[in-house]
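Key result, reporting period 2: structure in, sequence out.
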């Protein structure tokens, strides 16, 4: 590994600690959003089971206030921090009217322990009126938008039934950055029909974009999804990562990431009750970070 590759990895925890002097913990919230891809005549993304990624307290039947304080009490005890970000994680966090967003954010920001807002959304759900609201709040508090990009290959996006294309991703990033809003990108590595060169192509596409944070994780097959049906009927279509092959692809991709980009996540874990495959017993986010840090610093 060359000297220029040393210390490449920068993690989001360092960004937030520098900003606030301590760990900033996101409190995931379910504000009752839905998803245009599920509301349409399609069946939604082939891999999606949103419940698998939702904390125990993210129940829409509970009020937003109850969810917020449940998350606050849980994470404050666990991490001993006083800095929290409201994380609109479930489904598409901008799939509503501008007025509704304004009401939600005002409701959350009245609590002193909330230092900012993080919104998970789709690249095709950021119309000008919504971005205008986000821009106004970003001028008053910390605000970040996480875009579910997943892939830059339109054939892959189409098979995954994402309902958007790669141009939508680029336009969304550009619009948010013009509004001076931090952008996080989420990529799902290993989707069906990715080309052999997809890691290199992904790196080249990322290099064209102005974004600040990156989340990565490997494809997982979850119960109750269209992908689970495809995998059972045609397993050759779904090429699952092993820990070794995933690490190998990360070692190719991460050197292509701009040095000013913060890595927020490298893998994702779901409860065993939801997971069909692959089963990576024992590998944690911290283990993977340590392994990659050692690799890039050798």
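The corresponding designed sequence is given below.
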């Amino acid at each position: 590994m060359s000297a220029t590759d040393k210390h490449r990895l920068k993690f989001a925890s360092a960004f937030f600690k520098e900003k606030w002097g301590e760990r900033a913990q996101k409190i995931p919230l379910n504000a009752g959003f839905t998803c245009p891809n599920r509301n349409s005549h399609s069946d939604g993304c082939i891999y999606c089971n949103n419940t698998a990624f939702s904390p125990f307290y993210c129940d829409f039947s509970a009020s937003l206030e109850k969810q917020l304080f449940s998350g606050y009490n849980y994470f404050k005890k666990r991490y001993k921090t006083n800095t929290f970000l409201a994380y609109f994680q479930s489904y598409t966090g901008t799939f509503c009217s501008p007025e509704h967003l304004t009401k939600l954010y005002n409701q959350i920001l009245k609590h002193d322990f909330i230092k900012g807002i993080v919104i998970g959304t789709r690249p095709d759900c950021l119309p000008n009126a919504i971005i205008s609201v986000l821009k106004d709040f970003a001028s008053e508090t910390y605000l970040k938008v996480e875009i579910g990009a997943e892939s830059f290959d339109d054939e892959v996006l189409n098979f995954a039934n994402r309902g958007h294309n790669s141009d939508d991703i680029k336009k969304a990033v550009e619009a948010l950055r013009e509004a001076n809003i931090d952008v996080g990108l989420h990529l799902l590595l290993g989707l069906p029909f990715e080309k052999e060169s997809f890691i290199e192509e992904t790196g080249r596409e990322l290099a064209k974009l102005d974004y600040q944070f990156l989340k990565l994780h490997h494809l997982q097959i979850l119960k109750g999804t269209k992908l689970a049906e495809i995998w059972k009927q045609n397993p050759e279509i779904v090429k699952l990562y092993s820990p070794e092959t995933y690490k190998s692809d990360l070692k190719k991709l991460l050197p292509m990431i701009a040095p000013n980009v913060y890595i927020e996540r490298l893998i994702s874990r779901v409860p065993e009750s939801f997971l069909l495959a692959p089963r990576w017993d024992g590998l944690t986010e911290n283990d993977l970070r340590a392994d990659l840090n050692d690799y890039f610093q050798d």
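Residues 1-5 have pLDDT under 50 and may be disordered. Residues 3-297 form a domain with the TIM Barrel fold (CATH 3.20.20.70). This case is discussed further under Risks and Mitigation.
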